[in-house]
Amino acid sequence: MLEKITINMAPVDLGQIDLLVQGGFYQNRTDFIRTAIRNQPNTHSEAVRQTVARKTLVLGLGCSQSTDLTSPAKFSLTSTEGYLQPAGPGTSAQDVL
């Protein structure tokens, strides 16, 4: 299912898109915009991966151990601090303060 969106663009930007369409690089403006939107996440793939990892939720009963919080593979602290966001009952092992 597709959803319709409306965007406002400067005439200069539309002119550049039109030149690419006229040059045969894209079928029409919509084709250019869809391609640009589809390609944009690839330029930020590492940031998307890190955001998904930071915001992963555990549904149900969870138990955290100190190794869960210190392992780079499980809990990555990069340029921003990581955080835990409980979404239900949980317990902590004795080695977690």
Can you describe what's shown?
This protein is mainly alpha-helical and 97 residues long. It folds into 2 domains: 6-43, no CATH class; 57-97, no CATH class. The chain has 4 helices and 2 strands, in the order H-H-H-E-H-E. The chain has helices spanning 11-22, 29-43, 45-54, 66-70, and strands at residues 62-64, 90-92. The chain has a two-stranded parallel ribbon with strand order 1-2. The longest helix has 15 residues, at 29-43. The N and C termini lie far apart (48 Å).
Q: Report the portion of residues in β strands.
A: 5-15%
Main sheet makeup: 2 strands, parallel
The helix count comes to 4
Cα radius of gyration in angstroms: 22 Å
Give the structural class.
Answer: mainly alpha
Could you say how many structural domains there are in total?
2
Distance between the termini: 48 Å
Shape: rod-shaped
The tally of beta strands, per DSSP, is: 2
Which stretches of 5+ consecutive residues score pLDDT under 50? 75-81
Average pLDDT, to the nearest integer? Answer: 76
How helical, in percent, are the residues? 40-55%
Order the strands across the largest sheet as they lie in space.
1-2
Q: SSE string, helix = H, strand = E? A: HHHEHE
Topology:
Layout: H1 11-22, H2 29-43, H3 45-54, E1 62-64, H4 66-70, E2 90-92
Parallel strand pairs: 1-2
List keywords for this structure.
2 domains, rod-shaped, two-stranded parallel sheet, 43% helix, 97 residues, single chain, 4 helices, mainly alpha
Short summary of the structure?
This protein has 97 residues and is mainly alpha-helical. Helices cover 43% and strands 6% of the residues. A two-stranded parallel ribbon has the order 1-2.
